[in-house]
Specification:
Blueprint: H1 7-13, H2 39-46, H3 61-74, E1 78-82, H4 85-94, E2 102-106, H5 111-123, E3 127-131, H6 137-142, E4 148-154, H7 166-175, E5 180-183, H8 188-191, E6 201-205, E7 219-223, H9 226-239, H10 245-255, H11 258-284, H12 286-296, H13 322-340
Parallel strand pairs: 2-3, 2-4, 4-5, 5-6
Antiparallel strand pairs: 1-7, 6-7
């Protein structure tokens, strides 16, 4: 794949390169098994001595196209598609830690991930030490144990929208010789590349922005270490948490429009952000807005303290400042009405 392509182009072109006369888009290979002319070919595939497909739980052409596409977008070397975002998180942890091990995790993470760590994986014997994402360096350092195997974080956190300093957490993890795992679901590869910021593994719930059409559940783990990725692949097909060919095709379709959809989502969010900043300002101006309310009720010359109406002042007068400020009050009141809507 052309490394000079921008992400928008990779989202469309990466993962599948048709040959002469092949289908223009990756086909759905809805088959569990594949035909071979001799047993040795299947044996070599089973022993991972050569690349190919012989059982879809292990590998499938459509799933493979999806994995290659998202790996390109994430900037990793190997990617594994999973049945859901939760299974991606589970496999990413199990690939590194086992009973008796410890994981340092940001407290600001998806609720399902927190329950997975604090309840389900605790029963597996894996201990999690939670830290605040904005903790000081000393608090982060104190969370590490001799048996700590990885650090886990999410940014932007779902649903708290708290931002994690990936570079700082990566530095702390690497100082202890352990990898950093980052859940990048909310930002997607379009807005953030955790691997470029120091993360070693990236997990996604493809159900959200990657798929984009509310019609499939999927997950993904991307790694920058090939040896760790091959180990994860074995765990994935052993546990059977693989993604189906049809769901992989839906993900391929969805990612093609990722750039367009994320730009529109950002565009739609900006006015809401402005309103959230203006709201406290508007509230602080309520005394002025009270005169604006009077104006809207056709009492244009009411006093600032809501007393009885007064006679209209002439051009050189203003009664309690109301006449002079009526246009400003009216404008501010309309602003507040827009925010409240």
């Amino acid at each position: 794949m052309n490394k000079n392509w921008k992400l928008e182009t990779l989202a469309v072109q990466a993962g599948y390169t048709p040959g002469d006369g092949d289908a223009r888009i990756a086909p759905i290979v809805q088959s569990t098994t594949y035909k071979y002319d001799n047993a040795q070919s299947v044996a070599d595939l089973f022993d991972l001595k050569k690349a190919g497909f012989f059982y879809t739980r292990l590998a499938n052409p459509t799933v493979d196209a999806f994995e290659k596409k998202l790996t390109e977008l994430d900037g990793g070397v190997l990617g594994i598609a999973t049945a859901s975002g939760m299974s991606a998180t589970l496999l990413a942890i199990l690939n590194i830690a086992g009973a008796g091990d410890n994981i340092v995790a940001s407290r600001a993470i998806y609720g399902g991930s927190y329950n997975l760590f604090a309840v389900t994986m605790k029963r597996m014997g894996i201990e999690f030490t939670f830290v605040e994402p904005d903790c000081c360096d000393a608090e982060l350092e104190a969370a590490f144990r001799p048996n700590t195997k990885a650090v886990f974080g999410e940014t932007i956190a779902n649903p708290a929208l708290i931002v994690l300093d990936i570079e700082r957490f990566a530095k702390a993890a690497h100082a202890h010789g352990v990898p950093l795992i980052v859940d990048n679901t909310f930002l997607s590869p379009y807005f953030q590349n955790p691997i470029a910021l120091g993360a070693d593994l990236v997990v996604h719930s493809g159900t959200k922005y990657l798929g984009g059409h509310n019609d499939t559940i999927s997950g993904f783990v991307c790694l920058k270490d090939r040896e760790l990725g091959e180990k994860l692949h074995k765990i994935s097909y052993t546990m059977g948490a693989t993604l189906s060919p049809f769901d992989s095709w839906l993900m391929l379709r969805g990612i093609k429009t990722l750039a367009v959809r994320m730009e529109r989502a950002q565009e739609n969010a900006l006015p809401l952000n402005y309103c959230s900043m203006l709201f406290p300002i508007a509230l602080s101006l309520l005394p002025w807005l009270s005169s604006g309310w009077a104006i809207l009720r056709k009492r244009p010359y009411a006093s600032m303290d809501n007393s009885t109406p007064h006679a209209k002042p002439n051009a050189n007068q203003s009664y309690n400042g109301c006449y002079k400020d009526s246009m400003l009050s009216q404008t501010l009141w309309k602003t507040l009405r827009i925010i409240l809507k």
